[in-house]
Amino acid sequence: MKTLNDLLLLGDPRLYETCEAVLKTELPLVKNWVADMDNVMKEIRLKYNFGRAIAAPQLGIMKRLIYMNIDRPVIFINPQLSGLSDELFELWDDCMSFPNLLVKVKRHQSLTINYLDENWEPHDWKMEGALSELLQHEYDHLNGILCTMRAIDERSFRWRS
To answer: In what order do the strands lie in the sheet with 122-128?
Structure first.
């Protein structure tokens, strides 16, 4: 079982890599990967009081897999974003891979995420506001992009109080 000590931190070169698609033959592995992601997210919540979702590469699992647990667990396998709104909003973003740093970024107000679930069934989900922002953040991890790379300007960084 992976723990907080397995979380990749800012500067780890693996965080900047593009992930590979999950193959259908790897579906039996997804359950264990998600269990690890869930465990680390729970530890982050206990230690830092935040954490709604986590991307597999944050644990060195270089696969296109996102796990979200807000009111219920949702597994996004090989997600794709579409229908990104022209309307943007600013926010102070945080990340488990650098838990004490906040970064001011712009995100799309709404989007549609297309993905496969843990049974390899396809879904689309139209998201707005906080959910839209969250999935954009996690999706970026799958492409080796950190919110530090999306900072609005050089003054868009601050320590969490």
So the answer is: 53-55, 65-69, 73-82, 110-116, 122-128
Of 10, 12, 7, which Cα lies nearest the Cα of 98?
10
Is the pTM above the cut of 0.85?
Answer: yes
Q: What is the domain-level CATH number for residue 61?
A: 3.90.45.10
Q: Is 138 a catalytic residue?
A: yes
156 near 18, Cβ under 8 Å? no
Q: Is the pLDDT of residue 103 over 90?
A: yes
Options 20, 133, 138, 154, the catalytic residue: 138
> Two tokens at 62?
């270089």
Rounded CA gap, 136 and 139, in Å?
Answer: 5
Q: What is the pLDDT of residues 44-57, one digit of tens each?
A: 999 999 999 999 99
Q: Which domain holds residue 49?
A: 4-159
What's the mean pLDDT in 123-145?
98
- Cα-to-chain-centroid distance, residue 124: 17
Number of domains in the chain: 1
Q: Which residues contact 49 (CB under 8 A, 6 or more apart)?
A: none
